[in-house]
Amino acid sequence: MSASTTTLPAIPDGGGSTSKKWVAAATVIGTTIEWYDFFIFGTASALVFNKLFFPSFDPFTGTLASFGTFAVGLFARPFGGLIFGHFGDRIGRKSMLLLSLFLMGVPTILIGLLPTYDTLGIWAAILLILLRILQGVAVGGEWGGAVLMAVEHAGDRERSLFGSLPQIGTPAGLICATLAFSYASSLSEDDFLTWGWRVPFLISIVLIALGVFVRAKVSESPAFLAAKAEGHTVEMPGVEIFAKHKRSLFLAVGAKLAEVTLFYLVTVFILQYATTKLGIPRSEVLNSILMAAGLGLFTIPLFGYLGDRFGLRLVYGIGAILLALAAVPLFWILDTGDTSLIRFGIIVCLGGIYPMMYGPQPALYSSQFPASIRYSGISLCVQGAAAIGGGLAPIIATSLLSATEGTTAVGLYLGALGLLAATCCGLLRSPATDEISSR
User: Fold this and answer.
1) Which residue range is the domain that position 21 belongs to?
2) Under 8 Å CB-to-CB from 114, ≥6 apart: which residues?
3) Number of folded domains that form the chain
4) Mean pLDDT, to the nearest integer, of 85-99?
């Protein structure tokens, strides 16, 4: 993972700096909205859904059922990546970004209007799951298009920086979701459970309108246009990936697992564990996550920039190793019940280590696939890892906690994934050997 791996062949730049800046702004705003919609469900899963949609279960089973409902959204993400990736590689990136925004926003609004178990019985839970699946399909299709618009519009020495900008949408969306639930959590318990939890979902009405307005003004990816003009489009991109690019696909999945597992362990499992098992106020944990996400707004593009300077695999690999080393101490800190130490651990992991992997990721993964199948390739590897890592993380952690009566096993689980990520990162092809171009 040497510094020499950062030099990438040039691609069309999309029409100058003004065009690139607008693309960057549009992708950041759009991904912020998409991730806000996705994250408020995770927060609600930790705080309220087990009480309102699965109240007939005992607390442990209700928590697992709530996390399971959260997980189906992540399990749906690979299908979104496959569907949107197929058409994104066939007809263009831009149209898929607009469609994914609608597909995310409408179910989110409907969740905010959904009657609970007391009104509909088991049908309330079933409808909640179906709407969550639609959310998962949408975010699974959105991410690949957003980061490709940024990477493929960028110049040859700034792909990692520009590719990291849509990634800001993750902490930005998390901040917006956390602020929304911080306000809702300030209500009385009765008001929160009656109507307060719905407000973060209904805000999406305004956000969808903003996202559509911004994204409609973005020009199509120059790399896609070049590939289409030269006849390099592929009839079945998904089939092509499994036929000729399995190595890149599976290595990228292995490299992604630790990062996405860390994220959902902190934002879902630790939130639930700290508030219900340790008795820490919701606001304390939400504020810690908020601070970490705020730091991520700066560290994600910082590590994107460093990826351009020193090598994508080098920056990513160091982040994976640091994650492996910090995993067990993070959960030891959690078990102290000390709010200051817990806040420190969350900020270091979510605001410092996580961005080292998340920032350079779009440029690194984009370089593993040719333009003709790139949307499908990066979507499948990232969303597949999200389903395995993020979708199962709260469930596995809750089960490990029940089996061992301590969180050390959860830390070991996360640490092992960090070592796997470092190994897979080292085996990925150097971006210097691939072209992010029309071929």
Assistant:
1) 6-220+228-433
2) 124, 127, 128, 131
3) 1
4) 85
